[in-house]
Amino acid sequence: MSILNKIKNKFSFNYRKKRWPGLINAYKQYLPVSSKTPIISLNEGNTPLILSKSISDLIGNDTKVYLKYDGLNPTGSFKDRGMTMAISKAKEEGREAVICASTGNTSAAAAAYASRGGLKSYVLIPDGYVAQGKLAQALMYGAEIISIQGNFDKALEIVRKLSSEYPINLVNSVNPYRIQGQKTAAFEIVDDLGIAPDWLCIPMGNAGNITAYWLGFKEYAKIKKNLKLPLMMGFQSEGSAPLVKNIIVQDPETIATAIRIGNPVNRDKAKIVKKESKGDFQSVTDEEIIVAYKMLAKEGIFCEPASAASVAGLIKNKNRIKKESTIVCVLTGNGLKDPDCAIKNNDAIFQKNIEPSLKNITKILGY
Ligand SMILES: *Cc1c(COP(=O)(O)O)cnc(C)c1O
């Protein structure tokens, strides 16, 4: 190596120091694992925190809006963070099977991690309300799928009973290990920003994730990794807003199927998060979700509709945001999960059945 190159190497910062080992190995000291825990991992976590220029500009006032793109986890949603923990612990306990109710992403993650760990997985899903990509995943990863003529809430009621009577671990977000794994997303944000954001905007279904983030921010604050705590802003769809309205919604309806939940299991925990963080729960319409969904995609970030609720909610609060705030919106799932939604809701120019001649195409391009 030339002297010049040696000097260059010495002063160039190596961003990719070593292979990311998955979130359990990375944050072991903060998680309920021991040397006896068999770690079932797909190297999940370490997802990018992307500065959004368009949303930052829209909010104005020198606000910085970052997107925690958790749709880049191995199965395409943040559920992997909880599932690596839940499946590792199930394996440690010697269980042979796990079960969950799911609007899609939990079943995809449960199926993938269970198969990787050599466990069987059973998933109950609401007939006709699971996005195509998620269904494809559960089928491919090897779950046994039971589609019920009922919604998520009904499915959850059944799997809760089953898991209490038989030796099958429930891996929905009532499973405390799910929350433990998911809190690492808050750690990553603080590690990246060097401080907690002023606001955290997040979609809420069963409200496990907002509970997990708050736990993560609080735990990191205790060991002085961040000196302040964010306001926790939880968003639901107007047709599925049990936490905003403080009711049980019998027939939840929304385009954002991942948060189509009428009776959130973590309701009480979510209320505490709102109170402790001085945050707020609000609803956004499906139309507002789609506006945000398209805006993000135009900046190169494709998330699923439920995830766009976090950005739609932020936009609604534009006038409440203090100057020079730092805000993180959590993008919980990948846009590829729900191709039907994208195909139905876009502003693309898509010309079909065109005769393939150079002259014809040139004309179409306007040259
Ligand atoms: C599960 C899920 C949510 C909701 O998370 P909760 O922990 O149930 O509040 C939001 N978005 C996506 C994409 C999900 O898969």
UniProtKB/TrEMBL annotation:
Enzyme class of the recorded protein, top EC level: lyase
Cofactor: pyridoxal 5'-phosphate
InterPro entries: Ser/Thr_Dehydratase, Ser/Thr_deHydtase_PyrdxlP-BS, Thr_synthase-like, Thr_Synthase_bac/arc, TrpB-like_PALP, TrpB-like_PALP_sf
Enzyme Commission number(s): 4.2.3.1
One example GO MF annotation: threonine synthase activity
Crosslink site: Isoglutamyl lysine isopeptide (Lys-Gln) (interchain with Q-Cter in protein Pup): 161
Keyword terms of this UniProt record: Amino-acid biosynthesis, Lyase, Pyridoxal phosphate, Threonine biosynthesis, Transferase
Keyword Methyltransferase carried by entry: no
GO biological-process terms attached to the record: isoleucine biosynthetic process; L-serine catabolic process; L-threonine catabolic process; threonine biosynthetic process
Keyword Transferase: yes
Coiled-coil spans in chain: none
Pathway(s) annotated for this protein in UniProt: Amino-acid biosynthesis; L-threonine biosynthesis; L-threonine from L-aspartate: step 5/5
Chain sites annotated for binding pyridoxal 5'-phosphate: 105, 205-209, 332
Residues recorded with modification N6-(pyridoxal phosphate)lysine: 79
Domain Tryptophan synthase beta chain-like PALP positions: 40-333
SUPFAM superfamilies: Tryptophan synthase beta subunit-like PLP-dependent enzymes
Entry's transmembrane regions: none
Catalytic reactions on record: O-phospho-L-homoserine + H2O = L-threonine + phosphate
Function: Catalyzes the gamma-elimination of phosphate from L-phosphohomoserine and the beta-addition of water to produce L-threonine.
NCBIfam families named among the record's database cross-references: thrC
Family per record: Belongs to the threonine synthase family.
Protein name: Threonine synthase
Lineage: Bacteria, Bacillati, Cyanobacteriota, Cyanophyceae, Synechococcales
